[in-house]
Write a structure and sequence with these properties.
Helix content is 55%, strand content 10%. It is built from 29 helices and 13 strands. It is a multi-pass membrane protein.
Length: 752
């Protein structure tokens, strides 16, 4: 039997699949979709991998090795099922610097070390900390990398050679324009033109990757041209595998720094790409819930991939948004697509080496110029500007381009910190002049820290002595310096005969809070040398909160009710602290005449007097009885009647509930219906008790419509007693409540 009736409705729902849960066994349709998507990604990945290896100063085949490992190893082990990993433009500048400093084989050792660090990141569950990097810094870093790639590869497009730094590339650009190499220029510009125009052409041909078309067109054109440098390979993919070598002992600190740099940048880029892939997959599937990325597992997969890629002589890998977006758009369903694309690249690198050697270097460079510039995204610039972080973005870009990646990111992080400090100091302090109905008001908004004390002091000193003042602290926190200054000013102003009240936003906690930042009430409590203790503390705190936050807002309502009451109904409910009559009936002041006693019994002088007053004096059109789940009075009836009932007033009171117990034992329909719905015994007895109390009211000749309610505390649902079925039903399925006469129907306060 279900624990609760709502569990029956939920039983038919398909459970949400955890990111770590095994994917459902793919059918033939899924396999066909993954196979088709893998071929599309393969066609995108080959030219990009070759171009990134060229731009990194690495052996050309290192790009294909990394693409194979990224597809197979990271595809199998990663936490993002639809993400495709491989060599990425975002790592090009870093790898080129490492190759220039240490040589290629030591760089592969750095790749291995970076992979091991990523494994540590994943095992330590550090993925969430990458979210602390401001987006403006991340986007600025990628844009800076893109600009650096474009500046360097533009020289190759023009038939020359890339320089070592952005400044050198800019300085040599005029000379390069004056000494163009005709064949290479035509090939490179053709590749750029095709990359730019192809996605904008109408028609189904856009399904063919633009990178493949660009390289294919440029290669075909180069056949008719002479003196065009082409890719030169020493052998096939298997012959290009090379093990790392150890650096000289004096280079180890720099090598370890390179490992950390590659690990951090590759991890951040992979996780950002995975988030984008999740969104694209959800949009493609019409909002259906796709498998989410497991960030820590993704770092483990990337770490394993980098370790293997470095050991085989490949470039560092990361999640690549270009390949991943192509994978999603092509209809991939599982990680099989990424794995298969790696298999196709491996076959291509072993069997079709001669095809690779036909590709002109200028074609790959033209491809990289466009890919690099695509990292400078107008949407990122607009977002940074909208959030007041454009300076961070621009500074990061310039730092990466003209210094190096680490220094550029460091500049961005420092500026982000300074911006946070500046925002912390930008507290808004304003004065609202007094009126006949309200005192002078000082409103403080924002963050009230020591940096804001000068502005606060200037405004407070303008308040004339002896005047009543209310200080509204609409702040997210205040530190000790700000509290101390405000407290000192409050004492001085009161000494002049003025009245001061300091208020806080609704919902502010008032319990003591140790630490650098706290609320006004918390600071006062700590400095008073005591905490709010004792039985009366919660109620007194509530009274203070009422006067501070609520009284002013409800005063007009109560002023209108001061002359008398005209409630729309009487509600007799249990005195249980969890039963809030006004909340479960969505009623306000003056709407309900309420009576609460133990077990919601129509018994005793108090309850009967309330019923008489409500019906005879107030003329309420409705009398409702509300029971609830988990009722202690009903449990007392089950446990103690008739022989073991405790002595005293409680025992006497509960004995008046014996008719309800007898009716339940006799098989009252309300109790049977509750049991069939999955309620426990005392809840079924509570339902019967409501029905019996309604019968009691009917016997008393109450001249009002009668209604029964049952509040299920576990679900916060209110059930209504159905007179015809003699059972409790959801409020929107009951035709009419119990009635001793037709009556006017449900009042507004009790309508669903």
């Amino acid at each position: 039997m279900p624990d609760h009736p709502s569990s029956v409705a939920q039983a038919g729902r398909a459970p949400d699949r955890s990111p770590d849960a095994p994917a459902p066994r793919p059918g033939s349709r899924t396999l066909r979709a993954d196979l088709g998507a893998s071929l599309v990604v393969f066609l995108v990945a080959v030219p990009l991998s070759l171009g990134i290896a060229l731009a990194s100063g690495a052996p050309i085949m290192a790009g294909l090795i990394a693409a194979v490992v990224g597809g197979v190893v990271a595809g199998l082990l990663g936490g993002s099922p639809l993400q495709v990993s491989g060599p990425a433009a975002g790592l090009t500048v870093i790898v080129a610097g490492l190759v220039d400093q240490f040589g290629w084989q030591v760089t592969t050792l750095i790749t291995v070390g970076a992979g091991l660090l990523q494994l540590v990141f994943g095992l330590s569950r550090l993925a969430r900390f990458t979210q602390a990097i401001p987006p403006a810094v991340v986007h600025g870093m990628l844009a800076g990398i893109g600009v650096t790639i474009a500046l360097a590869q533009l020289h190759v497009v023009l038939g020359g050679a890339a320089q070592t730094g952005a400044l050198d590339n800019l300085r040599e650009f005029p000379a390069q324009l004056a000494n163009l190499h005709g064949g290479a220029v035509v090939v490179g510009l053709t590749a750029i033109a095709v990359m730019v125009v192809w996605p904008r052409l109408p028609g189904p041909q856009k399904a063919v990757p633009g990178a493949l078309v660009a390289v294919g067109a440029a290669t075909a054109l180069s056949v008719a041209l002479s003196d065009v440098p082409r890719v030169d390979l020493p052998g096939n993919l298997l012959e290009s595998i090379a093990l790392p070598v150890l650096p000289d002992s004096g280079l180890w600190p720099a090598v370890l720094g390179g490992m950390l740099t590659v690990a951090l940048v590759a991890s951040v880029e992979s996780l950002l790409s995975a988030v984008a892939v999740d969104r694209m997959a959800q949009d493609r599937d019409g909002g259906a819930r796709a498998a989410r990325t497991n960030a820590d597992r993704e770092l483990l997969g990337q770490g394993a991939g980098n370790a293997v890629s470095g050991l085989l002589g490949g470039l560092p890998i990361t999640g690549v948004i270009v390949r991943s977006s192509a994978n999603v758009r092509a209809g991939a369903q599982t990680r099989a697509s990424a794995v298969l694309h790696g298999v196709w690249i491996a076959l291509f690198g072993v069997v079709l080496v001669s095809v690779i050697e036909m590709i002109p270097l200028a074609a790959l460079s033209g491809l990289l110029v466009v890919v690099g510039l695509q990292l400078v995204k107008p949407a990122d610039i607009r977002t940074a500007r909208a959030h007041g972080e454009l300076l961070i973005y621009v500074a990061t870009v310039l730092g990466v381009v003209f210094l190096n990646l680490l220094e550029g990111v460091a500049i961005g992080l420092v500026l982000a910190g300074l911006l946070m400090v500046r925002r912390a100091a930008r507290t808004s302090v304003r004065v609202e002049e007094p009126t006949d109905a309200a005192p002078r008001r000082v409103v403080v908004e924002g963050t009230l820290s020591f940096l804001s004390v000068p502005a606060l002091s200037r405004v407070l000193n303008e308040v004339p002595g002896g005047e009543p003042v209310r200080v509204d602290l609409v702040v997210d926190y205040l530190d000790h310096t700000a509290y101390d200054h405000l407290e000192s000013w409050t004492r001085r102003h009161r000494a002049t005969g003025g009245w001061v009240e300091v208020s806080e936003p609704a919902g502010t906690r008032t319990d003591p809070q140790h630490g650098r930042f706290a609320t006004w009430s918390q600071w006062r409590s700590e400095h008073a040398g005591h905490t709010q203790e004792g039985p009366s503390a919660p109620m007194l705190a509530g009274v203070r909160a009422y006067h501070r936050e609520t009284a002013e807002h409800v005063r007009p309502t109560f002023s209108g009710l001061a002359a008398g009451q005209s409630p729309s109904g009487l509600l007799l409910a249990c005195a249980d602290s969890r039963v809030l009559p006004n909340m479960i009936t969505h009623s306000g002041p003056g709407d309900l005449f309420t009576v609460q006693n133990v077990g919601n019994l129509v018994s005793g002088t108090g309850a009967l007097a309330a019923v008489q007053y409500a019906t005879s004096v107030l003329r309420v059109p409705l009398v409702a009885v509300c029971g609830h789940s988990g009722c202690g009075a009903m449990q007392g009836l089950l446990d103690g009647v008739p022989t073991d009932m405790p002595d005293g007033a409680l025992g006497d009171w509960l004995r008046t509930g014996r008719p309800s117990l007898d009716a339940w034992r006799a098989g009252h329909p309300a109790g049977r219906a509750g049991a069939e719905a999955g309620f426990e015994q005392r809840d079924c007895l509570a339902m019967v008790n409501v029905a019996v109390q309604l019968d009691r009211l009917r016997e008393l000749g109450v001249d009002a419509e009668l209604m029964g309610l049952f509040f299920d505390i576990r679900t916060a649902d209110v059930l209504v007693y159905d007179a015809d079925a003699r059972a409790f039903r959801p409020h929107d399925t009951v035709g009419s409540p119990v009635g001793s006469r037709p009556g006017p129907g449900l009042p507004a306060a009790l309508r669903g």
